[in-house]
Write a structure and sequence with these properties.
Layout lengths: L7 H19 L6 H23 L6 H27 L1 H10 L1 E3 L9 E3 L5 E2 L8 H12 L4 H6 L18
Length: about 170
């Protein structure tokens, strides 16, 4: 719809879904169940808000209203999972924040990715990998940059080499 601007967080969540879809289509499903549940909850929340705020439920048929209600019902289950999981990791997360940088995980979109010397590790969905791989995922999913489009449009890829280790993770 023209003239509608989504909040940055909502737009980021939708870009994350688009990037996940592209990874699944072109490579394979690599996400954990926890990551899929959490990101699905956040994207469905954006979709439900968009329908209510910009389309209006008055425009929906009875069948569409029933489907929307079904989504809301299941969304509460996903939201409950996210809330429970966040409670389960609250103590380790607080400890991690004291000694490490914690950022948004590109898989589950929760602010629980701990950047440690041993490598990045998400306390929520347990995603981990090499620093190079996770940094690239972060730029693609969280920042919404597509390497191909950035180069095609004459832009600059936002990753830089770390001055300490000379690896493209900064």
């Amino acid at each position: 719809t023209e003239g509608i601007t989504l909040p940055n967080r909502a737009a980021s969540r939708l870009r994350g879904l688009q990037n996940r879809r592209n990874r699944i289509e072109h490579y394979a499903l690599i996400d954990t169940r926890d990551a899929i549940d959490a990101s699905t909850a956040s994207v469905l929340s954006v979709a439900v808000d968009f329908i209510e705020d910009h389309l209006g439920v008055a425009t929906l048929s009875e069948r569409e209203l029933a489907l929307l209600q079904g989504i809301r019902d299941r969304l509460s289950e996903l939201d409950a999972f996210v809330k429970t999981r966040r409670q389960d990791i609250s103590a380790p997360l607080v400890n991690a924040q004291k000694s490490s940088l914690v950022v948004t995980c590109p898989l589950c979109l929760q602010d629980t990715l701990v950047l440690e010397l041993e490598g990045p590790n998400c306390l929520f969905c347990r995603h981990s990998g090499t620093a190079v791989k996770v940094a690239s995922e972060y730029v693609t999913v969280v920042m919404g940059c597509c390497y191909h489009l950035v180069l095609k449009d004459g832009g600059e890829w936002p990753l830089r080499n770390c001055p300490a280790c000379d690896v493209e993770t900064l």
